[in-house]
Design a protein that fits this description.
The chain has about 160 residues and is an all-beta fold. The chain contains no helices and ten strands. It has strands at about 10-20, 30-45, 50-55, 60-70, 75-80, 90-95, 100-110, 115-120, 130-135, 145-155. The protein has a ten-stranded antiparallel barrel. The model has no long low-confidence stretch (mean pLDDT about 95).
């Protein structure tokens, strides 16, 4: 079934190089921080889901991804120790027909700031991938990139 195999590249163990704005909720922020992390991902539910455990020296988090074949739609939830007890609303989207990229979006309110959030997956291979996040503070008219992760399979 198309879609159910979109995240087949993800299970396994990853080193993650991160570049993130120091204040993602400030549209004028141009100060970046860089840090390393690891991610361990596994498939579940016969490919209709997967999860990953993300760890840095400062915090940990996890993503849960579930595929709805009726809608041909993935939903991705995030939670971390940076905002304990919160499960973010899911970003929703799908992969391009060629499977080389994907886009997911949602609306949220973080610390009282209304945003639209976008996740993009690209540069996907068996040994590496890129993930980018951007926020819109003007209802999607413009997007401000605020976090990039470069994943490299551990042992690769």
């Amino acid at each position: 079934m198309p879609g159910v195999n979109d995240f087949d590249f993800l299970p396994g163990n990853w080193n993650v190089r991160n570049r993130r704005l120091t204040d993602m909720l400030d549209p004028a922020c141009d100060s970046w921080e860089e840090f390393e992390a690891t991610s361990d991902a596994e498939a579940m539910l016969d490919g209709y889901g997967n999860l990953d455990h993300f760890r840095t020296d400062a915090y940990e988090g996890f993503s849960l991804r579930l595929y709805s074949p009726e809608e041909d739609l993935w939903r991705i939830w995030w939670s971390s120790t940076r905002r304990p007890g919160r499960l973010d609303p899911p970003v929703e989207g799908r992969f391009a027909p060629d499977g080389a990229s994907a886009r997911f979006e949602t609306e949220d309110v973080l610390d009282g700031v209304a945003i639209k959030m976008r996740f993009d997956w690209s540069e996907i291979t068996a040994e590496s991938a890129r993930w980018d996040q951007a926020f819109s503070f003007d209802d999607g008219k413009t997007w401000k990139p605020n976090w990039t992760m470069w994943l490299t399979r551990r042992g690769a």
